[in-house]
Amino acid sequence: MMLRSLRGLLTGIALAAYAAASAQAEVPPDVLVKTVTLEIVDIIAKDKDIQAGDKKKVIELVEAKVLPHFSFPSMTALAMGQNWPMASAEQKKRLTEEFKSLLVRTYASALAAYSDQKFEFRPLHARPTDTDVTVQVRVLQSGVQPISIDYGMEKTASGWKTYDVVVGGVSLVVNYRTEFRNQVRDVGVEGLIRELQAKNRALESADAASGKK
Amino acid sequence: MGAAAGCATIGEADPRDPVEGLNRAVYAFNDGVDQVIAKPIATAYVSVIPDPVRERVRNFFGNIADLLIGVNNLLQGKLGDAGNDWARFLFNTTFGLFGIHDVATEMGFEKHNEDFGQTFGRWGAGNGPYIVLPFLGPSTLRDAMGTVLDIRGDPLTRPGHGERDALIVLRLTSQRADLLDAGTLLEEAAFDKYIFTRDAYLQRRRSLIYDGSPPRERIPDARLDLPDVSSRVPPVAQARTLGTYAPRVPANYEPVIAVLEGAQG
Asked: Which of A163, B14, B32, B65 has the fewest CB atoms found within 10 Å of its own CB?
């Protein structure tokens, strides 16, 4: 009896030590989301240019702070679905690059719309051994239901990376599936890449035009 | 020629959207009405009315809506949630001065999102075909029937006074104003706004029916939707982890899970 509880205690200590060791190795996903979110919100709150609608500066902010924590190849693969294996390695690379530009811009637009809402960071339901988790954040706003933002995150060699953002139940990646499928069906993978390039260029020049005014 | 052009835009029919041609026409009509009337009014509203006032307007209408939200939670068997919603109405109407202050949220009574379409969904009704309603926008057969009851039950649509019409216009303006940023996002993000809106609506409604945590969906032709995950984790190892712990994978990856579990078993 005594022996058994002692063994239980030892196992407990060993597990705790293991958990501590792996926690040291990298930032846990929920901590990562919280740190990055609060850091960005703080920068926006202090930056007069961004508040005045300086799109270029928000994009730079996203590229510097958010981009390193996203896994764009996974996002592109999930958005392409059945068509992903059909693309050549070189096409996959270009697709990922263009989709990344589009997502960064979309993310920047969403951030630019931010105005001092409060965040609620929900406790992470996962085991230490999990390599794929959902980190839940809620944006609180008076008079409306809180908006949920769920980050699908996977463990990689270079830390936890986001592979999907689900806002109010709408997965950004899944929402591109039909669009990508239709494009590939109509104009092929190469055509889809061209469409993405054209869209990114059009958005860039629209920014440049509004920036000069 | 005309038929060929129609095919090029619509392609093979999406089973969720059997009347896509008609829907696209209504969508274009709604978009036109929005560009000419609703969006300019909402834009002016945002630029003229200061933010704190707009928040009170939003709270005021949100408070009225809580009554029917409570009814729907009751119909869905969520008694605690229904009590929460009516407590919100009680506190916000009194301490919150007819609802212009959302004191209930600060007291810990969370705002919910419910309507009759969600109630029917909770009772087991499927979406039915996707329908774009004139003026009202994206819906499904089920949600459109729900909307009929939503409008019937809405305290503001009781026949009568002119002030009520003014209130309805104000509410529409306030609601449209809250969507201005989303509209910009849609313009930027989507290749085909119709498709993007439709898919977002269907994802959103599914999430709402299950109050934010929908179960996984089993899709028969899941194999077709399998993304290349082989570069990340060995499939069998992934299948094992995916199968054992549900909340780790976002609900939209059901097809992947279904295939991987199939491969394992």
From this structure: B32
